[in-house]
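Complex record, two chains
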Amino acid sequence: MDYLLEGLIKALSLLLNRDPETLAAIQVTLKVTTYSMAASLLLGVPLGFGLGFFDFPGRKFLRTLANTLLSLPTVLIGLLVYALLSQQGPLGSLGLLFTPLAIAIGQTILALPIVVALTAATIESLDQKLRLTLLSLGANRRQLLLSILWEARYGLLMAAVTAYGRVLTEVGISLMVGGNIKWYTRTITTTIALETAKGNFALGVALGLVLLLLAFGVNFSLMYLRRKW
Amino acid sequence: MVKPLFEIRDLFHAYQGKTALCVDHLVIPQSKITALVGPNGAGKSTFLRLLSFIEQPVRGKILYQGKTLRLFEPATRKIVLLPQEPYLLRRSVFDNVAYGLRIRGQKKGLRKRVYEALSLVGLAPGEFAQRPWYALSGGETQRVALASRLVLRPEVLLLDEPTSGVDAQSAFLIQKAIVEAQKLWGTNLIIATHDWDWVSEIADTWFYFAQQQVWEDIPLFIPGPWQKGPLFWVRPFRDGASLQLEAPRQDSSGLAVFSSKEIKIYLQKPDKNFNVLDFQIFKVSLNKKLGKIFVFLSREDISLVLESGAGLSLYPGQKVWLSFPERAQKWL
C-alpha cells in the first residue's frame, strides 16, 4: 500500500514542479470537457426543458429513452464515434479521428442524456403554481421561460455537475477516439490507464488525485456560486 | 356612458370535459369592490383565471372595458391576479416584490415603490426586504405575494381566497392594504372568498357562485334522495319530516334550487306546517354595508345560507323554522 502515500507525495511534486507532461494532460482534459459540457448544456437544457414543460404525444417514451441512455457505456460511444469518424466512416473526410474534438464529440453524447434527463426531472418537479404566478405578474413568453429556468437553477446546476463528473472521469471515449497521443489527446484518465499498464502505480495514483482535485475545484466554485444566488 | 369593467357573455369553460363554469351574462361594474362568494369547487377560481385572461374560455366572451383580450397582450398587464395559495419565487422578499416592475421595465424608483408596497401590507421593509423566500410565516408569505401585486398599481386586482390559511391579524392587514390600494390608485377589487364575514366589511357588489354557475340571489340547494312520484317528489328526512315539491318538468339530477327570497324564516313553529322544516343556526354574519344579515343554517346533511333583514334577533345554536314553497325555482 506504499504507493498510495508515494502517489500523494508524487502528486504534490508533479503539481508544484509544474511537470510539463502532467500539465499538458490537465490542459487537454480541461479543453475537451469544456467543449463537451458547453455543447451538452446548449443542446440538453432546451431539450430537457421541452421534455419537462410541454405535454405532447410521445413525451413519456422520450423521457424513458433519455433515462435509458443514462446507462450508455463509454466504450460503445467510443465505438460509434470511431465508426463515424474513421476513414471509411460517413464523417471520415473531416479528419477528426484522434483529435481533441473527437473526444469532445464522444463526451457530448455521454453527457447529453444526463443533462436532458435531469433538466426534464427538475422542470417537472417545479411547483405547478409557478407558471400561474409568473403569468399573474405579467410575464411575457420570454420572461416566462427565463424565469422558470432561473427558478430551476439549483436543479440545472446539479445536472451540470453530474454530467461534468461523468465526462471528466470517462476513459473509454478518450482512449478509443482520442488515441492517447502525448501532448495532443492524452488526458488525465488515459495517462492513468497507460501508467498503470506500465506498472507505474504511484504516478497513476498521483494523477488520480489531480483529477479529484480538479473536480473539487469545480464543485467548490459552483457551491460558492450557489451560496451567492 | 361608462363601460362596465367586465362584461361576460355566454361563457362556458371546462376541464377535461368536466364543466367548470357556465355564465350566461354578467356585468361587473367599475370602481367597486366585488365579492364572489360560494363554496369550494363552485367555479370562483376558474372565473378569476378567465378574468385575468391567463386562461381562455372554451366558449363565450369576456370583455374588459368593452374589449376582448388575449394572454400576453400588453393590456392584460393592467389586470393582476393573486392566486390561491401564494407562491414566492426563489429569491429575496425584495426581489419578489420587484419582479413585476422589473419585467415591465419600470426600474425608476424601484426601491421606493417596493418599500411602499411592503409597508402597505404591514411588513417593515427594513426587517423583511432582504429575507429569503423560505424564512416567512404563512401570513407573511401571503402578504409578500399581495405586495408583489400592489406594487404594480393595477387597474384590476383579482384576489383568490386571500385569507385562506392566514391568521386574523394577517387577514385584517390584507383587508386594510387592498382598501388603501383602491383609495390611492382606484384599483378595482374582485375578491373570491368563502369568508363572508371578512368580505362583508368591504364589498359593495355581491355575486354568489354555486354549482358552476353565478346567481344574483343566494341560492339554496336541497339535494336528494327523492321519492319520485308523477306529480310530486318527496324528500324524506331521518327524523320523519319531509319536503314535498312539484315534480320537475324536465329531467333532473335531483337538486332543487330555491332563491333565498322565497324562503320565510320563523322564530316559532308556524300554524301552517306544510313544507315547514326546523333548522339550526350555526352562524350569523352581519353585513353592515348591505344592511343585511346572512344566516347559516343546517339540518341533517343539508346546509343553507339565508338572507334576512336586520329586524330578527338570531343567534348561533338557535332553532328556527323555514317555510318552503311547493315549487322549486328550478331543478338541476
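Note: Chain A touches chain B at residues 127, 129-130, 132-133, 135-141, 143, 147, 150-151, 153-154 (CB under 8 Å).
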